[in-house]
Amino acid sequence: MDKTQKIVIAEDNSVFLLLIKLKLEKEGYELFVAEDGKKALELIETHQPDLILTDIMMDYLSGLEVISHVRNVLKMDVPIIVFSASGQEEMVTQAFNLGATDFMVKPLIPNELIIRVKRALV
Amino acid sequence: MVPPLLINSFFEDFPSIVIIVWVLAIVFFFVLISLVFFLKVVRFRLRKEELFVETQSKKYEENIVDYLYSNENSHELNSAQKEIIDKLKLSLVRSLDRKIFINTLLKLKGEVSGNMITVINQLYKDLGLATQAQSKLHSKKWHIIAIGIRDLRRFKVLEAQDEVAKCINHSKMEVRRQAYLYFINLFGFKGLDFLDELKSSISIWDQIGILDALQGMETQEVPDVRKWLSSENDYVVLFTLELVKAYNLRETQKELLLLIKHENKEIRLKTIRLLNYLYIIEAKQVLINTYENLTIKEKIAVFELLENIGVEVREEGAFVLKHINSKVFEIKVLALKILKQIDISKFIGLKNETNVLANLKVINYLENNP
């Protein structure tokens, strides 16, 4: 039997978080949700996810700090997909420099997110 | 309770000032106690409301997500969705609940796109919230009207356009602003038709807001704006000039040339600058012919145009030469600059002709600086 793939989502918009959580759970993934960067890191360290989805702007720790910690401190090569709002292009570049795998601009289409998640987890 | 007799004997030997101080101290003590109690009550109520908002938000978030996922593949409402709608309708009786629910919808709207936005807008209508927002348009309080139009815009309620159109000339600027944005956001460039009916002003801030909203539109097909350049409302003309500039509408040339003789000096000045920006060569002669009737600012703008577009020695040379001794410093400098461009020998020759030190300094400066 295949092992259920684990995803950590870090996103501070609670309703959007709930929406994508349910969407991904329907697809068969095991989800761990964090409403800020600090909690996201705790979840990442505890659960060793197969994929990380993170917003750039968050409380306590930004998405960039999360990526940096995952790559430089935890030394994990897990794929990371970043959510950014339009106008944050510079931050997206920084995210890629830090080791992000992919990015999506908000507002986003949930079905497109699923496709990207599947592609990242292949 | 202290017997009054005891109080009297206590204060008997004190001077009156001490008694007054005592009385004041007691009064202030009670005022302080009341204030502390009042603040406690306010804080308790605020915390209670905060907790209520938090709980309700969570509940509505779940309801909305359940609704969205109940039927992803069809446009028809299924029984699960109908059930959620009925449940929500019962819950959204209080205005605070409606406010929380709308904020939750908006929170989600900002993050998702595609078909989900259409579904969210439809949910807003199905819950009767669009009807309620429309009813706000009849309120006597202007801020309620503004909120109503804002919500109708955010949830794209096209059906309210006739009602919103009535607010285009509302006495309050905030209401008018919401009305403009409603038309632009929902109908794009077609929404500019509200300019036909506009009798009041459009602030600079609103103009920027409208242009910004237009630039965000998917289709950038600009309608024919020429009719608004001859509007009786000067604010409409001024805004249309901004549109002409933003979209380089050179086809408005004929109307722009007519505006040079407009009675509003702000329009005239803006038009001259726009003609310069659009590089309309035909403007040169028209401006020279009307030059004497213009204000100093407009005259300077004319010379800026001549400098930018260029001058023909045979046609405009004499006009330029006539103004090299202008009393207005800017005009004098511009005229000399143009002369340097079109006839350098004449320009150099001026050095020997002039005996005014200031003029000589300008000529020397221009000679050494391109």
From TrEMBL, chain A:
The organism's place on the tree of life at top rank: Bacteria
Residues covered by the Response regulatory domain: 6-121
Key word Cell cycle present: no
Pfam families in the record: Response_reg (PF00072)
SMART domains: REC
Residue(s) carrying 4-aspartylphosphate: D55
Name of the protein in its database record: Response regulator receiver domain-containing protein
Organism for this UniProt entry: Tenacibaculum caenipelagi
Taxonomic lineage from the root: Bacteria, Pseudomonadati, Bacteroidota, Flavobacteriia, Flavobacteriales
Automatic annotation (TrEMBL), chain B:
Domain of life of the source: Bacteria
InterPro entries: ARM-type_fold
Keywords: Membrane, Transmembrane, Transmembrane helix
Residues that span the membrane, as ranges: 14-39
Name listed for the protein in its UniProt record: HEAT repeat protein
Organism: Tenacibaculum caenipelagi
